[in-house]
Write a structure and sequence with these properties.
Helix 5 runs antiparallel to helix 12, helix 6 packs antiparallel against helix 13 and helix 7 packs antiparallel against helix 12. This protein has a single domain, classed as Amino acid/polyamine transporter I (Up-down Bundle), CATH 1.20.1740.10. Strand 1 and strand 2 form a beta hairpin. It has 15 helices and two strands. It starts with a helix and ends with a helix.
Length: 414
Amino acid sequence: MFKRKQILSVFVVGLKRTLGLFDVTVASVGIILGAGIYALIGLAAQSSGNATWLSFLITAIIAIFTGLSYAELSSMFKGDAGEYDYLHAAFNKPFAFVMAFSMICAGFISAATVSLGFAGYISNLLPIPVLTGAVLLVIVMTFINFIGIQESNKFNMISTFIEFIGLAIIVVLGIPKLGSVNYLAMPHGFSGVFSSAALVFFAYMGFESIIKLREETKNPSVTIPKALVYSILITSVLYVLVAMSAVSIVDWQVIAASEAPLATVAQAVLGSNAFTLLAIIALFSTSNTVLITLVTTSRMIYGMAKEKTLPAFLAEVHPTRKTPHLAILVLMFLTLAFVLIGDIGLVANLTNFFLFATFASVNLSLIVLRYKCKQTKRSFRCPGNIGQFSIIAFLGFLSSLFMLLYVVKNLLGF
């Protein structure tokens, strides 16, 4: 049993509503941009070659299907537990717990993945071992997460601007060379493109995370659905342009072999100083993604603890910092455990396994809830319907299952 003081800290001390549409959209764009392009474009090029842009386009379409489902669901439910709330209402509590816990796993494993991407860039600048750099980043970002949502948001705003500039530089450098290569050259055919897409879907992780910021967002039923759609569209266009520019500037095999792929691309045009500049920008980008992932995942843990699905102590809010400090601490140790694996490709595919399984379930939950909760008010309704049946959610369900098969293929090394 909680003591009286602890009960007050959980249920009286709440989270602050300080985030508007711009803040939430930037948060989502920030986590999406840092998650994939800077950390995984080299690994993606190994499978898809010059057609890496096509892998990003395929994953963008899947992300839009699922993002629209999330947008409607987030306008129906008020809690921070996110996927757990949706699946509990559509199916049952045990299934909801398993899939929501899968999303928490995707959160801390993805934070570990991007931390390793950060470490790959910093090891090219400073004599710091990869694992050491990744561990230090997780600890520092955890501290910022603990300090408060406003401080985290300020860091996100600055980092998102910097990482956007870095990607814009790659696009600008590539414009004179667009059309210089065959963008449909696939070293492993369409199978390689889909394997690459199964990997780089990680690059879109983040659009679903902002639903966990509901309690800290102004007018969340309207703000969060809009931010979801805006962030996916913005990053999809940027990802495709960056991928096409990168292979236009540098042979895809060079990109595939680099630990700092976008820095290598910039160096090919502007020299060694450009390598340093892009590597520094990549450090901001990847660290920002780790921070926002830790923020949103800790809020999901907090939300599920409030629902009494996870241990109640994880719902405790710090009386002065107004953050779920115990959830944040537990999350840090879980993230560090996967950092120690040290294989960025393996960890990224593990993340995607949990992501696609959860996304398939979320899309299916919208289809079910259209019939179970016809009268429930929603500020956003997913387009593309036949009566109550959502075609978009159905396509999201099928595409998530299809990509899940390729993730398993990647994990098994087929």
